UniProtKB/TrEMBL annotation:
GO terms for molecular function: ATP binding; ATP hydrolysis activity. This is Flagellar synthesis regulator FleN. The keyword Nucleotide-binding applies. Keywords: ATP-binding, Cell projection, Cilium, Flagellum, Nucleotide-binding. One of its GO terms (cellular component) is cytosol. Residues 21-161 form the AAA domain.
């Protein structure tokens, strides 16, 4: 697992001389704290300033970025793996020239990002790094064996919390 994270980090940060996207993951411990809304509004604000932004819904199988946008997506990241599509095939267009990739929902089976899929994902992601100013990852709540790769590899994490009231 640490190998994969290291390799992903190397891919994301290793294009030293070339210009490449700043990568930011929106993360939280608890669910329902507002990550997806912040990810979307932050992405739209950057796009409004003329930045090329890709919002990547990595809450795979529980994605809601397309719902928040009021759009229905043709494809999600799940289709990239299951229908052998390239990452370019699954990029959708939102407002303000925002690009996004839906996380997929309503699956009738549990989707696993196994090692083979992570490797394919890394290759595909690398293709995008020189195409955008920002790539924002909307993550699922908490940390799992799957999401730790991305959290360790991105340039920055934005941790979203809400106050917990004690009686
Ligand atoms: N700033 C806010 N003020 C009040 N309500 C908010 C705010 N941001 C989000 N919400 C509401 O909180 C709920 C959860 O928001 P959101 O889906 O963005 O959270 P999330 O952290 O992405 O959840 P999940 O962990 O399920 O992915 C939604 O009903 C949303 O409308
Ligand atoms: Mg969310």
């Amino acid at each position: 697992m640490s190998d994969q994270a290291a390799r992903l980090r190397q891919k994301i940060t290793g294009l030293n001389s070339q210009y490449h996207a700043k990568t930011i993951a929106i993360v939280s411990g608890k669910g329902g704290v507002g990550k997806s809304n912040i990810a979307l509004n932050f992405s739209l604000a950057l796009a409004n300033e003329g930045k090329k932004v890709l919002l990547f819904d990595l809450d795979i199988g529980m994605g809601n970025i397309d719902i928040l946008l009021g759009k229905s997506s043709r494809y999600s990241i799940i289709n990239m793996f299951e229908n052998n599509l390239s990452i370019y095939d699954i990029i959708e267009s939102g407002p303000n020239s925002l690009s996004y990739i839906a996380g997929g929902s309503g699956q009738d089976h549990i989707f696993y990002l196994d090692e083979e899929r992570v490797n394919f994902f890394i290759e595909q992601l690398e293709l995008l790094l020189t195409k955008y100013d920002y790539i924002i990852f909307d993550m699922g709540a908490g940390v799992t064996r799957e999401t730790i790769h991305y959290i360790l590899a991105v340039d920055e994490c934005m941790l979203v919390t809400t106050p917990e009231l004690h009686p």
